[in-house]
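About this split. The held-out portion is used to measure sequence recovery: a designer receives only the structure tokens and must propose an amino acid at every position. Recovery is the fraction of positions where the proposal matches the reference. Here is one held-out target exactly as it appears in the evaluation file.
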């Protein structure tokens, strides 16, 4: 480990920074004694003190800075960056001396991989900060976009610019584009005005909405003007040639119309090469979920998941009838620009959208919330390391503003996603295929309770698995639309279909635990074998076919290539992937691939929150934790909270706790 001396207490207190430096081979320590280099952050006042100390001691300087994909919100919100720049030559925004980024771009090394990574950046709509809102109102396309910046931004002075550069930029934007509206975008972290004050907003000079998506702003612009703002870089990535009035890191490579020149920068680079240098080669990316250095694609997926959940929570929420033990967990899925959700027993906040557990939606509730949106909430399909009835909180939830996935009588958001999955691009289908492989390899299902050994089965016989369910569950009440509506009837039907088959019956875990109704007293007579919580990989490897009413086990069997017979109408039935013996909705005419179904059900529809860090995350993080049997995925409330939950449950007249 190399030793990095720092003189700033602020740096020394950043735990995430210390950890990323450790992973990069640097041990951070106070002061210069015994240090191999002096570490400074950027080019602020504290950095100047550190650089002066380095000159006195003869030690080299290592400059630290945020990566170009920083975080959901600006650093003032207290969010650590997704990535860190460690530069032992200079720093990218200091044009007076070379930086490692400049050497990458000026040198002869190949800068490959930029096209694929740039496509991911564009697909996810990423920017340096990602707390923008999709419904921000923008002027009609054809305006001129001008990027303002914070006074005192180090990239301005070190980019050979000053306050007068902004005045020249605005004047040029007006003179060179007569008659066009000029839209000024203030820096997202600005507390007030930037260099272009209130006096400039007159005639055709307008202020851009503060939370407008940067990609949308750029897409609607006839031209883009910047001094040293990263918005100029993002304009290049979008195919623009911005007018540049300073010397930022993205200038000098033949990609913009520049006022200044840097004699050191003589190479001509494509935007893909620029992106590869800035995103793939220059920064280090840190994965806080797995506590390791990572790659751009993984971090882009993290950023997209966090930003998507943030935007979905733009409206403040009122959660109706959520028990006390669940509220902290549910709040993590609903925090966003609308603030933290409020919890009520009955509707009390008409200014908020109503969020209700799907099975508790009633005509009275719909009438009380007639003037506001109702969102139905349910567990996701990859839930936890334990049962909700045991008070284990979920790692995923679904929120549906149309209906709910297990009710085939009305549309749901999932049904629409599946219907359009036929048109998914190849990269999304490839991600779904990788996810499916992870689930199969890790033996991952909804609850992941495997405790029992898989018994030996008779060789040479066809094996039929019958998936039992909780009989008062809403998915059975609403989705078992045919003649078979009980576990006993399901078993009898499967047995009658093939009298020579070896029939295995697997009760639902909640029923097996005695927490929910649905026990079949004579299951041992109707089936050849009754099993408990056995490993999914061993179970499905032994099965020739699965029979179900609406159980999620049917979906889990499809993931593993097991044929599925449905007697009800679960979300995965009616798309040509199952044998359907019960009625299915007539609107299910699309024929998506299995990976299209996986993408809709496990990537697009649910939200995921990591129970360990409390942060929104991609599904792959949850799958990794479940595959590792991370005990933190099985946390239940404290004993007093659990006692309160059971008392509240008893007083409310329910025999179950989560649903």
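Reference sequence for scoring:
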């Amino acid at each position: 480990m190399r030793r990095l001396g720092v003189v700033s207490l602020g740096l020394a207190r950043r735990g995430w920074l210390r950890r990323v430096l450790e992973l990069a081979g640097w041990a951070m320590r106070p002061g210069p004694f015994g240090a191999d280099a002096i570490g400074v952050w950027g080019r602020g006042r504290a950095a100047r003190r550190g650089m002066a100390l380095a000159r006195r001691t003869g030690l080299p300087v290592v400059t630290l800075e945020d990566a170009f994909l920083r975080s959901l919100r600006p650093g003032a919100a207290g969010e650590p960056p997704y990535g860190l720049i460690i530069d032992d030559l200079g720093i990218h925004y200091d044009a007076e001396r070379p930086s490692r980024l400049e050497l990458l771009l000026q040198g002869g090394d190949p800068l490959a991989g930029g096209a694929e990574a740039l496509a991911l950046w564009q697909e996810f709509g990423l920017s340096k900060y990602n707390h923008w809102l999709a419904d921000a109102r923008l002027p009609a396309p054809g305006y001129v976009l001008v990027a303002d910046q914070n006074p005192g931004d180090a990239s301005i002075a070190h980019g050979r610019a000053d306050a007068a550069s902004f005045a020249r930029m605005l004047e040029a934007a007006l003179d060179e584009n007569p008659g066009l509206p000029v839209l000024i975008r203030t820096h997202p972290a600005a507390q007030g005005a930037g260099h272009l004050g209130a006096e400039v907003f007159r005639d055709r000079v307008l202020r851009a909405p503060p939370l407008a998506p940067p990609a949308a702003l750029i897409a609607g612009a006839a031209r883009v003007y910047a001094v040293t703002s990263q918005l100029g870089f993002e304009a290049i990535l979008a195919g623009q040639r911005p007018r540049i009035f300073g010397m930022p890191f993205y200038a000098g490579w033949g990609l913009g119309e520049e006022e200044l020149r840097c004699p050191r920068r003589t190479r001509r680079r494509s935007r893909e090469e620029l992106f590869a240098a800035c995103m793939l080669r220059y920064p280090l990316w840190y994965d806080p979920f797995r506590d390791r250095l990572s790659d751009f694609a993984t971090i882009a997926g993290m950023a997209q998941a966090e930003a998507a959940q943030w935007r979905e929570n733009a409206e403040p929420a009122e959660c109706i009838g959520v028990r006390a033990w669940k509220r902290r967990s549910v709040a993590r899925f609903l925090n966003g620009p609308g603030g933290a959700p409020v919890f009520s027993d009955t509707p009390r906040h008409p200014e908020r959208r109503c969020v209700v557990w799907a099975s508790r939606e009633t005509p009275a509730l719909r009438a009380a919330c007639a003037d506001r949106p109702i969102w139905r909430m349910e567990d996701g399909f990859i839930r936890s390391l334990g049962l909700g009835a045991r008070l284990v909180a979920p790692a995923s939830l679904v929120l549906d503003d149309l209906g709910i996935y297990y009710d085939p009588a009305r549309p749901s958001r999932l049904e629409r996603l599946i219907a359009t999955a036929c048109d998914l691009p190849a990269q999304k289908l490839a991600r779904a295929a990788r996810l499916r492989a992870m689930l199969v390899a890790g033996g991952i299902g909804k609850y992941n309770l495997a405790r029992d050994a898989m018994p030996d089965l008779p060789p040479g016989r066809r094996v039929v698995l019958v998936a039992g369910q909780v009989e008062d569950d809403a998915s059975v009440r609403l989705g078992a639309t045919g003649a078979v509506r009980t576990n006993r009837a399901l078993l009898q039907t499967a047995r009658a279909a093939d009298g020579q088959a070896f029939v295995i019956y697997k009760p639902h875990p909640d029923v097996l635990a005695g927490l929910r109704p649905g026990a079949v007293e004579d299951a041992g007579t109707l089936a050849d074998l009754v099993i408990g919580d056995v490993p999914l990989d061993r179970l499905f490897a032994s099965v020739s076919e699965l029979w179900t009413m609406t159980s999620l086990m049917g979906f889990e069997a499809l993931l593993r290539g097991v044929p599925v017979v449905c007697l009800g109408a679960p979300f995965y039935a009616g798309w040509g992937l199952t044998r359907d013996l019960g009625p299915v909705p007539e609107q299910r005419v699309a024929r998506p691939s299995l990976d299209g179904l996986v993408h809709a059900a496990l990537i697009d529809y649910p939200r995921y929150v990591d129970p360990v860090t409390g942060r929104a995350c991609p599904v792959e993080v949850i799958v990794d934790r479940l595959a590792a049997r991370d005990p933190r995925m099985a946390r239940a409330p404290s004993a007093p909270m659990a006692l309160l939950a059971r008392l509240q449950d008893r007083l409310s007249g329910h025999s179950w706790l989560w649903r």
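Annotator remark: The chain has three domains: 2-105, 122-287, 421-634.
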